Amino acid sequence: MVNLADIHPRFSAEVEAAKAEIDAYAKAANDNRQKTLQLPDAVKADLKAGLPVIDPRHWQDKPIPERHWFVEGWIPHRTVTNLSGAGGSGKTEIILQLIAASSLGEQWFGHNVAAGPCLYFGAEDEADELHRRLGTIVDRAGRKLSDLDGVRLIPLAGSDAVLAEPDRKGNLSATAIFRKLEAETRTLAPRLVVIDPSADVFGGDEINRAQVRKFVSMLRGLAIDFDCAVLLLSHPSVAGLTSGTGTSGSTAWNNSVRSRLYLEANERDPDARVLKVVKANYGRVGESIAMRWDDGLYALDSGPDPIIEGLIGSKTDALFVDLLALFTDQGQNLGVQPGTSYAPVKMAKHPKGKGFSKDQFAKAMQRLLDAKRVAVVTEGPPSRQRSRLVVVQG
User: Fold this and answer.
1) Cβ distance 63 to 78 under 8 Å?
2) How many CA within 13 A on the CB side of residue 124?
3) How confident is the model over 352-389, as pLDDT tens digits?
4) What is the pLDDT of residues 105-137, one digit of tens each?
5) In the CATH scheme, what architecture does the domain 69-300 have?
6) Which of 25, 49, 247, 366 has the fewest beta carbons closer than 10 A?
7) Any idea what DSSP says for residue 59?
8) Over residues 275-293, mean pLDDT
9) 306-391: CATH number
């Protein structure tokens, strides 16, 4: 039998009443008695509306909608992004820095951020702690707390912060707290809603796939209804920490969100962190930001010693030239555009390129192009021209 409660979650109470009517109707039919089925008006209207079927031919000659981001490549607009990291790794800190960057019109670790109001719903820190952290952030930016226009904080440490919990039948539904969060979101109209962390706001079973998907769907509905991005913070399991993926519980957590970030700590350097994109439905997986704790907040890591970096770069450049000559001698043409013949990918997979990444070869390629040690040549008739990368002799 179809679960009518899934047809329209917002009318779950009416649907449950309708189910009772249906059961009564079935019983009456078995007894050969007549009974008229009466569905609630809201459910009738919803059923009558049908599914939102689209014929893509109607899109012909219409402009393709632009994709919007809160942070391009990292946090997409109108959907849910998950940021995981071990307790004490600095998740809340970097997100408060993100909120401040949005309000103050500043960059966030070198990335542009959509400007606008932001709403933080947190269950771990008290108001005084958030005050201390934001005070340090704005002070380091040369600004004042009074400059944080549009920022709203909901600190619920030690209080009930559960946004969804299952009923006696195991069906997940929104709590009164979630409805209050909706009301605050409607009033503020934020560009970003942060929920911190999932362990304190999700009242279901984190390995129950159906409950997890329902919860993330609720958050996605919040993002769509109020035209904002939603960022859900969480803690990884021991397996997620060990594997470096940052996952926890059911695979539905990873599968349901459109983007997932992982803040990784360095055991050998307690001040170092790396924020990575580990899932990206709309962007590129593998992007990373190296950061370091710096007197009260995180700052971009200046990177390794420039002398050592220069030596590594020189070695990569020389290997790039050697491999390009080798591929050319073998009749394999390499290109500068991503694809099957993309030079950095082909070189990283070659036995001689072992120990060097695609990104290192990509940086070497750009340095060599800038230095005119390699070049792109175009060959063939105008109708079938092909470009390839060559070593510049001389």
Assistant:
1) no
2) 16
3) 887 788 888 998 999 999 989 999 988 888 777 788 89
4) 999 999 999 999 999 999 999 999 999 999 999
5) 3-Layer(aba) Sandwich (3.40)
6) 49
7) G
8) 90
9) 1.10.10
Strand partners, 82: 232, 260
Residue carrying structure tokens 């409805």: 179
Which residue did the predictor score with more confidence, 289 or 42? 289
Question: Token pair for residue 272?
Answer: 């170092």
Contact 19/37 with Cβ under 8 angstroms?
A: no
* 265-269-275 Cα angle (round to 5): 30
HSE-up (13 A, CA, CB side) for residue 177: 18
Does residue 181 or residue 31 have the better pLDDT? 181
Task: For the chain, state the CA radius of gyration.
Answer: 27
- How far apart CA 219 and CA 193 sit, in angstroms, is 10
Residue 25, CA distances (Å) to 14, 34, 36, 46, 318 in order:
16, 8, 7, 21, 80
Contact 361, 346 (CB under 8 A): no
For residue 10, is pLDDT > 90? Answer: no
Q: How far is CA 178 from the centre of its chain?
A: 21
* pLDDT greater than 50 at residue 34: no
Please list the residue range(s) of the chain that carry CATH number 3.40.50.300.
69-300
What does the DSSP assignment read for 96-165? HHHHHHHHHT--BTTB-B--S-EEEEESSS-HHHHHHHHHHHHHHTT--GGG-TTEEEEE-TTS----EE
**192-196 vs 229-234, strand pairing mode:** parallel
CB atoms closer than 10 angstroms to residue 98:
25
pTM, two decimals, is 0.66
